[in-house]
Amino acid sequence: MENITTENAQTDNLELFVWRTGLAEISKKAPIGSELIVSGSREFLESLLVHCRLIKDGSNKYLVSGIPEARTEKEALEACARFRQICENVQQGKEAFEGVGN
Question: What pLDDT does 37 receive?
Answer without folding.
Answer: 96
